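Hi, here's the filled form for the chain we discussed.

Project: internal
Contact: R.S.
Residues: 66
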Amino acid sequence: MLARLTHGTIRLLDRVLRHTAAWNEIPAHQRTGRWGEEEAYFCLKKLGYVLVARNYGSARRRGKLT
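And the returned structure, exactly as it came back:
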């Protein structure tokens, strides 16, 4: 139940963001990637997985670990 509420809230915030100037500043491939990461997160949550971190970055490694 809480996951559904969180997912709905994020979707609502995404809709609000689309009507701001900041949305157009984000490249299309990054918007698609962000959407995909959110969908993957909620899909895994629904299957019972427990995610320990999202978009984890390390000082020793360049980039992020997904």
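Let me know if anything looks off before we file it.
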